[in-house]
């Protein structure tokens, strides 16, 4: 299948291009940039010299449809809302990495403070978390690739929520991200001087991923879930670590919960469950599409603590988008994604 990468000069778009170089079935035939149209990607990123030969072009849907069957859209939120209907109308399938097609119109307006996509387009969107929605993804025309924090949080919590093992009212998620999560545009809060040797919470209580996480958990829980969710910026380039806490509804042991997680993710190639006493770190998954999960029950407090780690740019964005493209194409989910993490 021929694919276009929209926003190829951005961090996630660039990762899609890089990962697709080793994909046996998906060929990158078009790459776009608004500010660099007409230039070569290697002028912006010389490390790709000799590896990428397509020129950067503007994201014109009809022109892209002549070159590709599927588009990965890696634009800032708000922009894909305008482009996606044109791409769909031109006959392309779309995987949107932005938040635009993950929420209801009212939630999108409230949490992103932008104009939402039309109800007609939203009705076509399938939430692209392959571990839970593989069948719907396989037949979709528009896939809303999950957010980075929601990916780690949902994979960490859904086994517990589905089995009614935690009281959803007691749920707290403490999340930390590397700075590439903010994209390549420089802002005062992600500037080197602000981030280096520093550690800070941000968007406390107002993070745009709150309704996304609550929405999916509620679907699987059968009742409305609300959670306390706090994001932190860590002075590292890649990686997300989420720590989730909740009160257990029955006396279960760490061993029993680990067995449940092993069983839930037995056939999922990118979720790895740790042995008792072993907690994952961000480097364990760096540059790979894995999500590693560890947990422990505290019998004193009757709470469970679940640690989830992903690479925000890979399982949190580009890798998951390719996993979704594999499902769309009827390929094994691991096609082109079987890379071991880079530990140092
Ligand atoms: N970074 C991450 O870890 C994750 C990001 N996401 C989401 O994926 C999307 C892409 O993120 P990311 O790659 O980090 O973003 P970047 O800011 O790094 O890249 C954005 C891309 O969009 C292009 N673009 C086109 N028009 C505009 C415009 N008007 N203003 C700014 N950029 C424009 C830019 O290219 P050019 O300037 O050359 O035109 C650039 O290639 C976002 O919606 C983000 O929220 C989702 C999960 C994880
Ligand atoms: C470190 C950092 O700033 N991360 C970003 C992640 C943004 C993102 O993934 O955006 P979507 O809304 O498109 O999912 C943030 O917290 O806003």
UniProtKB/TrEMBL annotation:
It catalyses: N-acetyl-L-glutamate 5-semialdehyde + phosphate + NADP(+) = N-acetyl-L-glutamyl 5-phosphate + NADPH + H(+). It comes from the Bacteria. Gene3D superfamilies: Dihydrodipicolinate Reductase, domain 2 (3.30.360.10), NAD(P)-binding Rossmann-like Domain (3.40.50.720). The active site is at 148. GO terms for biological process: L-arginine biosynthetic process. Pathway: Amino-acid biosynthesis; L-arginine biosynthesis; N(2)-acetyl-L-ornithine from L-glutamate: step 3/4. InterPro entries: AGPR, AGPR_AS, AGPR_dimerisation_dom, AGPR_type-1, NAD(P)-bd_dom_sf, Semialdehyde_DH_NAD-bd. Its EC number is 1.2.1.38. GO terms for molecular function: N-acetyl-gamma-glutamyl-phosphate reductase activity; NAD binding; NADP+ binding. Transmembrane segments: none annotated. Keywords: Amino-acid biosynthesis, Arginine biosynthesis, Cytoplasm, NADP, Oxidoreductase. The keyword Oxidoreductase applies. Catalyzes the NADPH-dependent reduction of N-acetyl-5-glutamyl phosphate to yield N-acetyl-L-glutamate 5-semialdehyde. Belongs to the NAGSA dehydrogenase family. Type 1 subfamily. NCBIfam families: argC. This is N-acetyl-gamma-glutamyl-phosphate reductase. It comes from Tumebacillus algifaecis. The gene is argC.
């Amino acid at each position: 299948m021929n694919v276009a990468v929209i926003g190829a000069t951005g961090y996630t778009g660039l990762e899609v291009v890089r990962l697709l170089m080793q994909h046996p079935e998906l060929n990158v035939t078009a790459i776009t940039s608004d500010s660099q149209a007409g230039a070569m990607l290697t002028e912006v990123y010389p490390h790709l010299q000799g590896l990428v030969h397509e020129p950067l072009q503007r994201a014109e849907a009809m022109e892209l449809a002549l070159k590709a069957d599927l588009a990965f859209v890696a634009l800032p939120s708000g922009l894909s809302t305008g482009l996606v209907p044109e791409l769909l109308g031109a006959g392309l399938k779309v995987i949107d990495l932005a938040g635009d097609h993950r929420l209801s119109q009212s939630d999108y307006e409230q949490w992103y403070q932008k104009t939402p996509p039309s109800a007609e387009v939203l009705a076509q969107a399938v939430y692209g978390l392959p571990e839970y929605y593989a069948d719907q993804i396989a037949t979709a025309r528009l896939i809303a690739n999950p957010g980075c924090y929601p990916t780690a949080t949902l994979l960490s919590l859904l086994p517990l929520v589905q089995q009614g093992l935690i009281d959803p009212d007691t749920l707290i998620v403490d999340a930390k991200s590397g700075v590439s999560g903010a994209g390549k545009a420089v802002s005062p809060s992600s500037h080197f001087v602000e981030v280096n040797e520093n550690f800070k919470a941000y968007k406390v209580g107002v993070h745009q991923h709150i309704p996304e996480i609550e929405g999916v958990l509620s679907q699987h829980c059968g009742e409305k879930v609300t959670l306390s969710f706090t994001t932190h910026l860590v002075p590292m380039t890649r990686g997300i670590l989420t720590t989730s806490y909740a009160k257990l509804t029955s006396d279960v042991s760490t061993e029993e919960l680990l067995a449940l997680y092993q069983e839930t993710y037995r056939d999922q190639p990118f979720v790895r469950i740790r042995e008792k006493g072993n907690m994952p770190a961000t480097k364990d998954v760096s540059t790979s599409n894995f999500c590693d999960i560890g947990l422990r029950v505290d019998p004193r407090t009757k709470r469970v603590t679940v640690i989830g780690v992903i690479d925000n740019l890979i399982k949190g964005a580009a890798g998951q988008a390719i996993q979704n493209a594999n499902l769309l194409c009827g390929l094994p989910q691991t096609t082109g994604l079987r890379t071991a993490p880079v530990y140092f």
